[in-house]
Amino acid sequence: MSDAPAVAVADLRVRLDGTxxxxxxxxxxxxxxxxxxxxxxxAGKSTALRAIxxxxxxxxxVELDGTPVERLHRRDRAKTVATVLQSPVVPPAMRVFDYALxxxxxxxxxxxRESAAxxxxxxxxxxxxxxxxxxxxxxxxxxxxxRQRVFLARALAQGARTLLLDEPTSALDIGHQQExxxxxxxxxxERDLTVLTTMHDLSTAGEYADRMVLLAAGRVAAAGSPREVxxxxxxxxxxxxxxxxxxxxxxxxxxxxxx
Amino acid sequence: xxxxxxxxxxxxxxxxxxxxxxxDENSTGPRPSASAAYPVTVGPVTLTxxxxxxxxxxxxxxxxxxxxxAGSQVTAVDDQSDYPPEAPKSxxxxxxxxxxxxxxxxxDLVVLSNDIDKISSQxxxxxxxxxxTPAATTMQDTYREIGExxxxxxxxxxxxxxxxxxxADIDKIxxxxxxxxxxxxxxxxxxxxxxxxxxKTFIGSIFxxxxxxxxxxxxxxxxxxGGYPQLSQEALIKANxxxxxxxxxxxxxxxxxxxxxxxxxxxxxxVKSGQIFPxxxxxxxxxxxxxxxxxxxxxxxxxxxxx
Amino acid sequence: xxxAGLRPVWxxxxxxxxxxxxxxGLAFGSVSLPxxxxxxxxxxxxxxVRLHSGLTEREVAILTQLRLPRVVLGxxxxxxxxxxxxxxxxxxxxxxxxxxxxxxxxxxGLGVTAVIALRGNAAGGxxxxxxxxxxxxxxxxxxxxxxxxxxxxxxxGGRDRSPATxxxxxxxxxxxxxxxxxxxxxxxxxxxxEVYSWLLGRLATAGWHDVLMIVxxxxxxxxxxxxxxxxxxxxxxxxxxxxxxxxxxQRSRYLLIIAASLATAAAVSVSGLIGxxxxxxxxxxxxLGGPSYRSILPLSVLFGGAFLALADLLARTTGxxxxxxxxxxxxxxxxxxxxxxxxxxxSVAP
Lengths: 259, 307, 350
Prior knowledge:
The complex is a heterotrimer.
Chain A: E1 7-16, E2 19-29, E3 34-38, H1 45-52, E4 59-64, E5 67-68, H2 74-80, E6 81-84, H3 96-101, H4 116-128, H5 144-157, E7 162-166, H6 174-191, E8 194-198, H7 205-208, E9 211-216, E10 219-224, H8 226-229, H9 232-239, E11 243-247, E12 252-256
Parallel strand pairs in A: 3-8, 3-9, 6-7, 7-8
Antiparallel strand pairs in A: 1-2, 1-4, 4-5, 9-10, 11-12
Helix pairs in contact in A: 4-5, 5-6
Chain B: H1 2-10, E1 40-42, E2 45-47, E3 54-56, H2 59-67, E4 74-77, H3 99-104, E5 109-112, H4 119-125, E6 130-132, H5 139-153, H6 156-176, E7 185-191, E8 195-196, H7 202-208, E9 213-214, H8 233-239, E10 243-246, H9 256-260, H10 269-272, E11 276-278, H11 281-285, H12 291-304
Parallel strand pairs in B: 3-4, 3-5, 5-6, 7-9, 7-10, 10-11
Antiparallel strand pairs in B: 1-2, 7-8
Helix pairs in contact in B: 5-6, 6-12
Chain C: H1 8-27, H2 35-44, H3 57-92, H4 104-121, H5 135-154, H6 163-187, H7 192-200, H8 209-227, H9 229-235, H10 239-244, H11 249-271, H12 277-289, H13 293-317, H14 326-344
């Protein structure tokens, strides 16, 4: 099934406490693509991502590499798609190496221990993310940017070909934001990954995505290339903001302007 | 609270008796055999020879042992056994007993009134005979215990003599008190937070000899408090006892003055007429030979109350 | 780079400490026994060995019938309490978590009080009626009932049994059962001393009966908890992450709670309420040996057992010729030690 899309979502509906958060979302991510979901607060971006990652009950169709996600055993799902959530719990005393090693959990049998292959995979991932020298450091001694790389390391260690990233840059300063996004793009090319992220910061989102989906009030309001989605009209309608969209070399840039 | 603990421990066995007044509690039982032959069996305990290294962990048994002439056979008593003064007091505890510490005294008989923390089975594992003698609820229990200790220690004759002497003394004391038209009521105080003992307890049976009525009885009519209810101040004042007996004068510093000073108590007959009688805490919490002194104290008090 | 886990050095240290506690517990007591004689008698326990130890029959009985079962009981109970505490801390991600949180202690206490009160009130009941005979069963039953109540309450109103909800439910159940226990104690004053003695904890035991009673519980619950050590490590980074890594956090959590609570109920039914072990031991190990449950859990069993056995040694030798309740000893020595450890290490969260 090598030409099946990495992620195929049809009529995705999610209810929480009786309220309909997502009311029928369609979404496809081809293998190797980077798709970014944008939308105002409360639109349901994170909910959509979590449903696709198998963290929430949902109605509708979610297929990963052509297989419906409910037919995948948990461990297999973990080997297929890796999720990095917003603000993960950081146990302060855990070392970088051990945190990244958590990514190998789906490969370790229930009463077994990590194998040499697991340890090698972690070492490889840490090297790729320039974290090798931090391997023995406690998580609470790292900066925000370094920690974000550690979360990514854990996700990569899972060996999954699809990455779901929920707001990967929201806690970072402008320099680290760019650093992380460049890193993800670089890894995507190097390891043939598929990336689905949510972003609420629009300024540079258009430079990194192959396609975008604009969610508003639990439904898809617009979908297509960044140039098609990031228009002044769309943004004014859904974000109620006045913006100037500038055509950059790598994609549209969004700049809010005063009236 | 120690008062309550000691009294409560003393009442661990709750046998309901008729609680009646009268003289048949003071009559002597069948005369035990005069021969001090061994082996002797009392309940589950069998001794093949006379015990010479007795350890007593209950002050009442200590008093009894010395009163029947077995004092020279006692090698150690617990830290609460303060009578008679020549009793070999040690640091052994009857409330938090240590099997090893007891064993270190190398006893050939241990006397207990509370089987706390399975101490008796621990001692049995060490092949140390244990005589468990729970607190008495009537004078009959006391006499029986004296007889049993007499049999175990080879002092049956002295035990019988003690029994007869106590019974006769008590009889004499009670008869010397003139009969009353209406029974006197009494409140027996175990602790300043108004814990009392009903007529169904050992101490209650003493007062019953004088035909007195216990104001705490209604508070434990069903026996759910085991004979030791805590009274409410209002109920007590309403009951208006003629006499008040204090068993907390030593432990909790209660006296005629402190009781009289209690708010709202000045309307109570006992307080108004000064009929408040402190008792010796120790004697009142034990059920041994000195119970005769207790009966005497009550008699002295009753006589002071005008007819 | 080696992954976090149980270092052989620590394991050896744990086993060594247990042996030291065992030997010290056997060698010392109110009665002083010659060490050579003790060693000889211990060797005599091995079938086929017949050495002359020079101890009297009574001394041998003290050693094999009083001290040996008592020390073994201390090792077992201490190990179970520490393991249960560590499991709870991992499940609830809270350094103060302890099975007492979910009402286990309150339920056991109520069971004990009820059975002592009932026995005392029965017409003809007397103190000689095999004293704590029904107590272990009642404590165990009470603990399980309390746990069930907490469970049901935690799911009432359609809420999921999240850690926070369970803790709140546990607090409510503990308060309610504690009040019931106090009420019973007040109405049956003669139960006070016995219940109080149970509340403070004691390991005094005659023979192997109590030990044999909890060995099956110790074995089963330890196996269940230890088997989940890796899951516990993953749980520290959150339920969502654990799910996305292919685990079943809710199921692991329930299993751990049930096993840990069973272990505590069994320990408590035999030895009364002994506090501090379940909190101090795992936390100290975490501070000294790192945050991985793959080392915290097994080391908690070993060091928890040794700690309690040594505390019991103090309880029965420093009180003059009386016994100090063991709960007092664990608090007295445990708390300051913990403060020292806390001050000399950086802070960690489970």
